[in-house]
Amino acid sequence: MKFLHTSDLHIGKRVNEFSMLEDQEYILEQILNIVDEHKPEGILIAGDIYDKGIPGVEAVTLFDRFLTRLHKKGLAVFMVSGNHDSSERIDFGGRIMEENRIHIAGTYQGKLDRVTLSDEYGLLYIYLMPFVKPAIVRRYYPEVETYQEAVEAILNHEEIDNSKRNILIAHQFITSGETRPEQCDSENISIGGLDNIDASVFEAFDYVALGHLHGPQRIGRDTIRYAGSPLKYSFSEAQQIKSVTLVTIAQKTEVTYEKLPLVPLRDMREIKGPMEALTDPKIYSQANTLDYIHATLTDEEDIYDPIGKLRSVYPNIMRLDFENRKTLWNVDAKMAATDLEQKNDMELFEEFFEVQNNVPMSVEQKEIMQNLLEEMEGDLS
After folding, report:
1. Pfam families this protein is in (predicted)?
2. What does pLDDT average to in each consecutive run of 10 residues of the chain (381 residues)?
């Protein structure tokens, strides 16, 4: 049985004030083409369907068209809410949609939704766990304090048959012991990782389809995976290759996956160099000038209207920075000032002495200087 795993669509998102709707429509069309080519049984959408709790009309319309086309292709849809979604809005109409094999878990209500499928290898259970916080789970299990305890309580109260094949769809921040997954600027992670959950809680599941982090990656083991977002939503993701994950489950011990690459309408790229080079046709003609661009200019001299000059070549430039001797000096000066603030008088004098004499202070010299500084402090007080 084959499933397509994706997440973090963030439909309706704006990046640096650029609407991503056209790019999202383009990438959803690619996902539909992948469905036609690989013919999975269903699609696992692991949260953050929308970018806001109250999405705009255009965002809702786009996702509605996507769901409708998936249904017409005969796919079962399994979908959970993410931290960006309004769980109640995601739930709306869910019971009606379920009759059309569109299974939605927006809010946690004391028990996970479970869908039963079967093939020549027997029964397969798909569990849907929407994004949860401890406060939500505490309504049902008052002893819960942390995210780890919340997910443990949820799964411990489920009657999971380990002899059958089990899939879980979830939208949480998962770690594995001391190993933390790759993160991006566009993700919303609690300070200090207070929302992390260890991958060991998923031992009963043959495949865990995760959402929340935007880079495709495994965590803990190969069958606990983040599919990643289908589009780049920050320049920290510029080097990532976006994809959807095709998961094949035969017998219980036979789970394989394949990352199927996605090609965006407009990529998100970083370019660096002097203005003359970045606006040279020989340079810019080698890539799509309509991509979303973060440019770093290295010219030493001031340039009149640099953003205007760059925008004439790269109309979708999102960010402009400068890197030259002046900016590097400013950075060094700030670091030096911070360094001075963190050193005491004795440390500063030792450095001064060594610069002047080309040798460090002796133990006796340090003692003399330390006594002088203490006497001066006494006189001032």
Report:
1. Metallophos, SbcD_C
2. 97 95 98 97 96 94 96 96 92 83 94 95 96 95 94 95 96 89 69 75 96 94 96 95 97 94 97 95 94 95 93 96 76 52 76 74 86 70 48
What is the Cα–Cα distance from 185 to 239, expressed in whole angstroms? Answer: 13
The answer to whether 41 touches 250, Cβ cutoff 8 Å, is no
42-46 and 2-6: which strand pairing?
parallel
Q: Cα separation of 295 and 278, whole Å?
A: 9
Tell me the C-alpha distance between 249 and 149, whole Å: 29
Q: Return d(Cα 24, Cα 13) in angstroms, integer.
A: 9
Domains and CATH numbers, the chain: 2-261 (3.60.21.10), 268-325 (no CATH)
User: With a threshold of 0.70, does the pTM exceed it?
Assistant: yes
Quote the tokens at residue 313.
């070549």
**Of residues 57, 59, 58, 38, the one with CA closest to residue 48:** 59
Pair of tokens at residue 70: 């998936």
Nearest-angstrom CA–CA distance, 79 and 309:
45
Provide the residue type at 306 as one letter. P
Handedness of CA 304, 305, 308, 313 (dihedral sign): positive
Give CA–CA dist 158/167, Å, rounded: 13
Burial of 183 (0-12, 13-18, 19+ CB in 10 A): middle
Contact 248, 2 (CB under 8 A): yes
Give the C-alpha separation, 156 to 69, whole Å.
37
Q: In the numeric block, which tokens belong to residue 329?
A: 């000096």
Closest among 16, 23, 4, 303 to 169, alpha carbons compared: 4
